Amino acid sequence: MIGSLGAAPKGGCSRAGCRESATWRIDWRNPKIHGSDRVKTWLACDEHVDFLREFLAARSFPVRVSAFDAAAPDAAAPAPLGDVPAAGGDGA
Ligand SMILES: [Zn+2]
């Protein structure tokens, strides 16, 4: 009996079907169902970080991408996410 493939890898990419190790973390929330202090976190590999970020951005969810350190996954505690600034606004 060699191997222990049953163990779920820690810090894996959140993209369905992807088994790569995550190098990015994507903090996001759905303003319609989450309060400003409720932040969800996905993990992503280099290949899927853009896909996942755009998936959320397309829904106008506040989203923030930052480097993920698998050795210290809790080093960067989620901070409240502000609302996405309205595009085409008056300046700012
Ligand atoms: Zn991936």
Write the SSE topology.
Elements: E1 24-28, E2 40-44, H1 49-57, E3 63-67
Antiparallel strand pairs: 1-2, 1-3
This protein binds zinc ion.
Protein name: Acetone carboxylase
What does this structure look like?
- The chain has 92 residues and is mainly β.
- The protein has a domain at 24-67.
- Helix content is 10%, strand content 16%.
- The protein contains 1 helix and 3 strands; from the N terminus they run ββαβ.
- The chain has one helix at residues 49-57; strands spanning 24-28, 40-44, 63-67.
- Strands 2-1-3 form a 3-stranded antiparallel sheet, covered by helices on one side.
- The model is unreliable at 1-9 (pLDDT under 50).
- Bound molecules: zinc ion.
- The site of zinc ion has 8 residues, from loops.
Task: Give the beta-strand count.
Answer: 3
The residue-averaged pLDDT reads: 79
Query: Structural class, please?
Result: mainly beta
Distance between the termini: 61 Å
Protein name: Acetone carboxylase
In short:
The chain is built from 1 helix and 3 strands, in the order ββαβ. The chain has 92 residues and is mainly β.
Could you list some keywords that capture this structure?
mainly beta, three-stranded antiparallel β-sheet, 92 residues, binds zinc ion, globular, 3 strands
